[in-house]
Design goal:
560 residues, mainly alpha, two-stranded antiparallel sheet, 18 helices
Length: 560
């Protein structure tokens, strides 16, 4: 009875497994991966059923008296396990079938070296599509079609291996061959195909010797002037180039040494390994020599930090920032090498830590020099003698940057504060001077030059000589009064200009109300006299121009 009960359980398991695997729409309506997962679950169920039976067979049972003894189950194993065992053997064949289907479907979707063009199993699969009872282990037609499919799969694998071999033969370098090997391993799951891929390491090792020779030739050609990437300092660029060459030969060698398919004891392998060791040692020495040479040059490059902030051109007297490019190069090298993991000396790191501070001061000095150049350029020739003391004060404020302050000094902020205060003050003064000279002096002079001194209205009727002279006399008296008023305004504006410059003070040096100190910036008498004479000449020329224009107009009227 126990055998019959367990046999019925096995039959129910078989029926439920068939229904579970086939699903509502059949096997071919599902993806190969989904079918494979279900088939493997059926095999796992069979293993669990057998394990449970064996564990129960050896279990200890208790009798009615409370004693215990071991007794084997008296069952007919054929009745229990035969049907489900035949079913599982059919499932194993189906696993092989759908594994092949999944493999070749993956190859059809791939874009690697023509793998999707492998043919030969399509016709064999048509026979399986026609089978309606693939999970029925009593159906005899399955085995014949399965043998035909196996032969087709073997032929397709042969064609596939030819394509793989051809792809490896076309690989230009070891890296390309390794990339191809990784791609093939990612899509080839069948054991026969993966075993063949493992053997490709021997073919790749043959190409590795050519890569070693190419790296050696490249090193010999560029070791004196290594190719450097854009925005890369020379030392860091040379070391990065050497490391790239070393990485190119080191990665494949690590793969070769870890592979069980290669034997490094052969004569050719020893020769290749010897060449690799020689090239690797040369590249490591190259990096060491560059690092040592740079370490010895650090002190010379750091000397620029002790230079003064500013210099002045001996001929043009123009100011310029005195920042040695070697300091920036040293900081760039230290930053790049530290990122690459190279041990950077402490004195170079100290310079690197000061780089943000140096850049900030450089930007502020550059702004101050631009402001100074703009101020000097906008000063008019006639007003330059008056503000010469102010310009001299600005130049005195530049002196600490020319003589005492260096990039390592701690009082640069105070120097920049005093300098910028003077520049702002003089800039404000120049704006007021420009407004006064353009609007209150030069514009008035232009108005005087444009005056019409005579009243020669062409629409007026013919006049007698006495009437004409009376009209012109009245006109000249009116224009004379206007001219005197304009001249008075110009004279007052010139006085205001002199007073404005004479009473101006620069914060930070001259206390407001200190008459003795303010006298240092007061324009000289000669400069004031020259300014008044200049605008007097301009006013005289404007009046003369107005008189000449009136005479020309009178001449035209009389001759017309």
């Amino acid at each position: 009875r126990a055998s019959a009960l367990l046999g019925k359980c096995a039959n129910q398991m078989l029926a439920r497994c068939r229904a579970y695997v086939e699903g509502p729409d059949g096997l071919w309506a599902q993806t190969p991966s989904a079918v494979l997962a279900k088939l493997r679950e059926c095999l796992a169920l069979n293993d669990a059923f057998g394990s449970a039976y064996k564990a129960r067979e050896k279990a200890t049972v208790f009798n009615k008296e409370g004693g215990q003894r071991s007794r084997a189950l008296d069952l007919n194993e054929g009745t229990v396990f035969n049907k489900f065992g035949y079913f599982c053997r059919r499932v194993e064949k189906l696993v092989e079938l759908f594994t092949a289907i999944e493999q070749f479907c993956t190859l059809e979707e791939s874009q690697i070296g023509g793998l999707g063009k492998v043919e030969g199993i399509g016709a064999a699969l048509v026979a399986f599509h026609a089978l309606a009872r693939m999970l029925d282990h009593t159906h005899s037609g399955f085995d014949r079609d399965y043998v035909e499919l196996g032969a087709a799969v073997v032929d397709a694998e042969g064609a596939l291996l030819q394509i793989v071999n051809s792809s490896f033969e076309r690989a230009a370098s070891t890296d390309a061959a390794f990339a191809l090997l990784r791609q093939f391993k990612a899509i080839m799951q069948r054991a026969s195909l993966r075993d063949d891929l493992e053997s490709k390491l021997i073919a790749i090792f043959g190409k590795y010797t050519a890569d070693l020779e190419a790296v050696q030739a490249m090193y010999e050609a560029h070791r004196t002037a290594p190719p450097i990437g854009r925005n890369t300092p020379p030392v860091a660029g040379a070391i990065a180039w050497a490391r790239q060459l070393l990485l190119r030969i080191e990665g494949p060698m690590m793969v070769f040494t870890e592979s069980a398919q290669l034997t490094m004891g052969t004569r050719e392998a020893k020769k290749t390994v010897k060449m690799y060791n020689r090239i690797a040692r040369t590249l490591i020495e190259f990096e060491y020599l560059w690092t040592e040479a740079w370490g010895k040059a650090i002190e010379a490059q750091r000397a620029g930090i002790m230079a003064t902030l500013l210099v002045r051109h001996p001929e043009s007297k123009a100011y310029a920032i005195n920042l040695d490019p070697q300091v920036l190069l040293l900081c760039a090298e230290a930053k790049a090498l530290s990122r690459m993991g190279v041990a950077v000396p402490e004195r170079a790191m100290l310079c690197l830590f000061q780089l943000p501070r140096i850049k900030a001061y450089h930007a502020q000095l550059d702004h101050a020099l631009r402001e100074y150049a703009t101020l000097v350029a906008c000063v008019k020739v006639i007003t330059r003698p008056l503000i010469r003391p102010l310009l001299a004060e600005l130049e005195r404020r530049f002196q600490p940057g020319l003589s005492t302050l260096t990039w390592a000094s701690m009082n640069i902020d105070g120097f920049l504060h005093v300098l910028n205060a003077g520049l702002r003050a003089v800039k404000e003064l120049m704006g007021r001077v420009r407004d006064l000279t353009e609007n209150r002096i030069e514009r008035q002079i232009r108005v005087v030059g444009a005056m019409r001194l005579l009243d020669l209205d062409p629409a007026r009727e013919t006049l007698s000589l006495d009437e004409f002279l009376q009209i012109q006399d009245t006109r000249l008296r009116e224009q004379g009064q206007r001219l005197r008023a304009r001249a008075g305004e110009i004279e007052e504006a010139v006085g205001d200009l002199v007073e404005l410059i004479g009473t101006f003070t620069i914060a930070g040096r001259v206390p407001v109300g200190d008459a003795q100190a303010q006298a240092l910036f007061k324009p000289s008498t000669v400069a004031v006299r020259g300014l008044r004479a200049y605008y007097s000449r301009l006013l005289y020329r404007a009046v003369s121009g107005a008189v000449r224009a009136a005479l020309r107009e009178l001449k035209v009227r009389l001759s017309g």
